[in-house]
Amino acid sequence: MTTDILIRGGTVISESGRQRADLLCHEGRIAAVERDLEAPAGASVIDAGGCFVMPGGIDPHTHMQLPMMGTVVADDFFTGTAAGAAGGTTTILDFVGPDKGQSPLDALAAWREKAAKASIDYGFHMTVSWWGEGFAAEMPALVHDHGVTSFKFFLAYKGGLMLPDEEILAGFLRCRDLGALPQVHAENGELIAHLQRKLRAEGVRAPAGHPLSRPSQCEGEATLRAITMAELLKMPLYVVHVSAAEAAEAIQKAQARGVGVIGETLPGFLAIDASVYENPDFDIAAGHVMSPPYRPDGHPQALWKAVEAGTLSITGTDHCCFTRAQKRLGEDDFTKIPNGCGGVEDRMNILWALGVEGGHISPERFVALTSANAAKTFNLWPRKGTLSIGADADIAILDPAKSKTISASTQHQNTDFSVWEGRRLKGSVVHTVAGGRHLWADGDLRAEAGGGRYLPRAPFGSVYENLRE
């Protein structure tokens, strides 16, 4: 149940501008945005003096409660979404992962059951973990009956999720016919498998073998290959978690040719480099193992240029966190370290500190990167990503003067490790309102299991007219 909330005294930021205004939330929606609003009887009031009032974050790339590499990620849909709320995120898009041969509709039903405990709103992408007539036959129901309108294809993980080009092409064509958006995890799985075998034969077992087996060229090649498929098939493409300069360059050149390719990156790829894998402490080195990996110095700088230019227009987290004990499953073999890092709680604060305070982006671009562009790309606009009248009352209030130090000991993510350990930030989300519910109140987390709603999304149409250019 929601009550009226009046947010008073802040500066309201959108992707296109800012204004000094109060903001009234009524029945879970934005009811008014103007100066000097009066609080209705019974309304609660949030003092936003000196703060920026922005659309709540949309994290379009999370993995809650995901079985992986002999274990299950540490965050379930409640702990993960509660952590997100503590960092200003009010919507996530997670990934349904069917087992090999499993009906994707059955998998969606299982993921819907898992996600019923979510504390903020959520939607789903579908991982194309196998391909065949059975999968293709269920895609119309996924798109039109259940609102799952984006499908992820893997060019990596040979022997697992990786599909051959023939099947990726067939899947892309099916997406085109249905008005669904294909996504790709772009790394060359054949080369990675070869390099893993070579490194292990040479006796490499430590986490440092992970980035050596997944060099940036593997990402650049696979990104270009996926773009080439989409370009010749005359359809858009979404490239997830871009980490490499070569991949960003391929996206930039395609966009310049008019290809509708959208690039997503993660805050960690903008600030952390591959030197972390050389740390002699296994827990620290393994704690950073994710795919694609953090890249050598030079790549973060190239990615910032791509963000500034608009080549990379969306930020996610690929939130997929494990505990130190879980990472130790690969203590004797880097290929067995569970792949993934946390981040859903930190994305907004980190990107503000790195981007806005760091001089790379304006507050308006921050809103675009954390909320508005994802809302438009995934057909959630204008319900999400804006503070216009009638939009969902999903709001992050950020105090640019408040400092925060990130630590695993104080985070709400359900793990004992943080890639941002000890980093002190200037600027912090102090209040989060999700669907008109005040979930984060300057250190007081009020998230409740089951408070979130499922977000079915409309298809994009045969010519993808609703996608961002």
Automatic annotation (TrEMBL):
<keyword id="KW-0862">Zinc</keyword>
<feature type="domain" description="Amidohydrolase-related">
    <location>
        <begin position="52"/>
        <end position="432"/>
    </location>
</feature>
<dbReference type="InterPro" id="IPR050378">
    <property type="entry name" value="Metallo-dep_Hydrolases_sf"/>
</dbReference>
<protein>
    <recommendedName>
        <fullName>D-hydantoinase/dihydropyrimidinase</fullName>
        <ecNumber>3.5.2.2</ecNumber>
    </recommendedName>
</protein>
<dbReference type="InterPro" id="IPR011778">
    <property type="entry name" value="Hydantoinase/dihydroPyrase"/>
</dbReference>
<dbReference type="GO" id="GO:0004157">
    <property type="term" value="F:dihydropyrimidinase activity"/>
</dbReference>
<dbReference type="InterPro" id="IPR006680">
    <property type="entry name" value="Amidohydro-rel"/>
</dbReference>
<dbReference type="GO" id="GO:0072527">
    <property type="term" value="P:pyrimidine-containing compound metabolic process"/>
</dbReference>
<dbReference type="Pfam" id="PF01979">
    <property type="entry name" value="Amidohydro_1"/>
</dbReference>
<comment type="subunit">
    <text>Homotetramer.</text>
</comment>
<feature type="modified residue" description="N6-carboxylysine">
    <location>
        <position position="152"/>
    </location>
</feature>
<keyword id="KW-0378">Hydrolase</keyword>
<dbReference type="GO" id="GO:0005829">
    <property type="term" value="C:cytosol"/>
</dbReference>
<comment type="function">
    <text>Catalyzes the hydrolysis of dihydropyrimidines and of the structurally related DL-5-mono-substituted hydantoins, to produce N-carbamoyl-D-amino acids.</text>
</comment>
<dbReference type="GO" id="GO:0055086">
    <property type="term" value="P:nucleobase-containing small molecule metabolic process"/>
</dbReference>
<keyword id="KW-0479">Metal-binding</keyword>
<comment type="similarity">
    <text>Belongs to the metallo-dependent hydrolases superfamily. Hydantoinase/dihydropyrimidinase family.</text>
</comment>
<dbReference type="InterPro" id="IPR032466">
    <property type="entry name" value="Metal_Hydrolase"/>
</dbReference>
<dbReference type="GO" id="GO:0046872">
    <property type="term" value="F:metal ion binding"/>
</dbReference>
<dbReference type="InterPro" id="IPR011059">
    <property type="entry name" value="Metal-dep_hydrolase_composite"/>
</dbReference>
